[in-house]
Amino acid sequence: xxxxxxxxxxxxxxxxxxxxxxxxxxxxxxxxxxxxxxxxxxxxxxxxxxxxxxxxxxxxxxxxxxxxxxxxxxxxxxxxxxxxxxxxxxxxxxxxxxxxxxxxxxxxxxxxxxxxxxxxxxxxxxxxxxxxxxxxxxxxxxxxxxxxxxxxxxxxxxxxxxxxxxxxxxxxxxxxxxxxxxxxxxxxxxxxxxxxxxxxxxxxxxxxxxxxxxxxxxxxxxxxxxxxxxxxxxxxxxxxxxxxxxxxxxxxxxxxxxxxxxxxxxxxxxxxxxxxxxxxxxxxxxxxxxxxxxxxxxxxxxxxxxxxxxxxxxxxxxxxxxxxxxxxxxxxxxxxxxxxxxxxxxxxxxxxxxxxxxxxxxxxxxxxxxxxxxxxxxxxxxx
Length: 383
Ligand SMILES: Cc1cc2nc3c(=O)[nH]c(=O)nc-3n(C[C@H](O)[C@H](O)[C@H](O)COP(=O)(O)OP(=O)(O)OC[C@H]3O[C@@H](n4cnc5c(N)ncnc54)[C@H](O)[C@@H]3O)c2cc1C
Fold this sequence. Notes:
This protein has 383 residues and is α/β, with parallel strands linked by helices. Helix content is 23%, strand content 30%. The chain is globular.
């Protein structure tokens, strides 16, 4: 009998493994289980869909039944997994059904963090983390004018740029003193802020939201600096937390993510994890490029050729057309300094160690043209 690989999650990570594994093994039985509709789409498109003329319908690349016939896979949409029995290699679904696996891949993604705010409008704060969320978001901004975004990180800035480009009035609130505070040195953050302000974004930085009240379908945000903001909708994008609950309840080691080694393998031999839910050798990298590399390595391992994942330097493009930006942040455990050059049209910030080695960069505006040359000088993230 052929073996069965069960993949939980039909996001970019789940589908990337399924596709790579099918290329290597035409016979293996692959079952994909998911909470959601199971269709294939590119999640990064959600935060620039207005300016690229995309609708939730056009973002959906292929529905589950099309993916199923294309990849010769059984796909089970709306089928949440409740528990994993690691000893008996079995999954219990919320419906009560049990499914046995030879190898299990957890591609569970991450949840948006929700801040503990006060006020009667808090439960109506919106987050956008998948296509269903985005469809609701698009519906709820119809006929609306003013949107408040909590969080000036990558996703917050991208949505802010997209919404002002579509003529919304946008207020962005962040406790940090600059946008993209975790990715950019101060001069680069200030440059991005100016460009986004010129495009129409109102920043409220160095402050946070205290309360969100809803009166007559309008939201009133009170900030800790004493300011108030009125808006038609509040979008929160303050960070992601890997989905680890299913794994930890099963006794699989978790930390910030589901802990895996270079073979994407948990502490159980036949259980693997990748994507936003996984912590690979201490790194949680919630981006597309790491998924591509991890999926190729994992598919080879699942097909019988144990293959460790290697991560080259993987710069991230920030989709803010008002200020083209590409970042390759230095690893958190390296020591160096930022050296920044700015000429009004762009910012080139290079992070170097004491010997002059390049360990990271942030390129904005015209400086983004140096991306390829500088990427080739960066060390790999996992060699
Ligand atoms: C708005 C936005 C813009 C982004 N832009 C970029 C970008 O420009 N560049 C970039 O590199 N990255 C970007 N990212 C990040 C990137 O999209 C993610 O890293 C990637 O999509 C994560 O894929 P994933 O498969 O790990 O998780 P997900 O896509 O979240 O998939 C998780 C899957 O697991 C399923 N699931 C979870 N729990 C269960 C359960 N118990 N039972 C059954 N199924 C379950 C879910 O239903 C879902 O199918 C962006 C993210 C967002 C939100």
